[in-house]
Amino acid sequence: MMKLFYKSGSCSLAPHIVLKESGLAFQTEAVDLKSKQTASGADYWQINAKGYVPALMLDSGEVITEGPAIGQYIADQAPQKKLAPANGTIERVRLQSWLTFIGTEMHKTFSPRSRSSAQKCTRHLRRFSTPRPRRNGKTLRWPISNAAWAMWISS
Ligand SMILES: N[C@@H](CCC(=O)N[C@@H](CS)C(=O)NCC(=O)O)C(=O)O
């Protein structure tokens, strides 16, 4: 069974949400980011040499790191849930573009410390999204996938 290594209140929430939404079977194991020990006493450096969460261990023992890669891997395991657009489509590239933007331009340089600042940032991020015409004539912002939102909200 897949196992997500996580820390509460951190960006590992994003793949955790994607796992829940996927309906796939998974386990979780908390990581103490100070001591780099997992809840079962394992040395986290041996699991993820980068020392940070999230990390996803597959049945094979292989470990995937980096939230955007983990989220998309999970989404691809449950295509019927439509958590991410299909690989090779322009929509998928748009998701990857947002995830890269969030991961590289925002996550490390800026962390909202309160709900109100997170909401402010979410409004700001919405303004970046591309407006699309709707059938009823109203304008709809291009929907950023749940995974991208989850990544943002939990960063
Ligand atoms: N590039 C990584 C960043 C992961 C990251 O920054 N994780 C933080 C929590 S949000 C962490 O574990 N920090 C502890 C540390 O770096 O020691 C990703 O997107 O998954």
Description:
The protein is built from 6 helices and 7 strands, in the order E-H-E-E-H-E-E-H-H-H-E-E-H. The protein is globular. The chain folds into 2 domains: 2-81, Glutaredoxin (3-Layer(aba) Sandwich), CATH 3.40.30; 90-153. Strand 2 and strand 3 (37-38) form a beta hairpin. It has helices at residues 13-22, 44-47, 67-77, 90-107, 115-128, 146-153, and strands at residues 2-6, 26-32, 37-38, 55-57, 63-65, 131-133, 139-141. The chain has 155 residues and is of the alpha+beta class. Helix 1 (13-22) runs parallel beside helix 3 (67-77) and helix 4 (90-107) runs parallel beside helix 6 (146-153). The strands form 2 sheets. Strands 3-2-1-4-5 form a 5-stranded mixed sheet. Glutathione is lined by residues 7, 10-11, 33, 51-54, 66-67, 103.
Which properties best describe this structure?
155 residues, alpha+beta, Glutaredoxin, 2 domains, 5-stranded mixed sheet, two-stranded antiparallel ribbon, 42% helix, 17% strand, globular, binds glutathione
Describe what is shown at a glance:
This protein has 155 residues and is an alpha+beta fold. It is 42% helix and 17% strand.
Strand residues, percent: 15-25%
**Helical residues, percent:** 40-55%
Shape: globular
Q: Spell out which ligands are present.
A: glutathione
Number of domains: 2
**Radius of gyration over C-alpha positions, nearest whole angstrom:** 17 Å
Q: CATH superfamily name of the largest domain?
A: Glutaredoxin
In CATH, the architecture of the largest domain is 3-Layer(aba) Sandwich
Mean pLDDT: 82
In CATH, the topology of the largest domain is named Glutaredoxin
User: What gap, in angstroms, lies between the N and C termini?
Assistant: 26 Å
Q: Strand arrangement, largest sheet? A: 3-2-1-4-5
Write down the secondary-structure element order. Answer: EHEEHEEHHHEEH
Which parts are unreliable, with pLDDT below 50 for 5 consecutive residues or more?
A: 139-146
Main sheet: strands, sense, barrel: 5 strands, mixed
CATH class of the largest domain: Alpha Beta
Helix/strand-derived category reads alpha+beta
Please tally the β strands and state the result. Answer: 7
Tally of individual helices: 6
Tell me the quaternary state: single chain
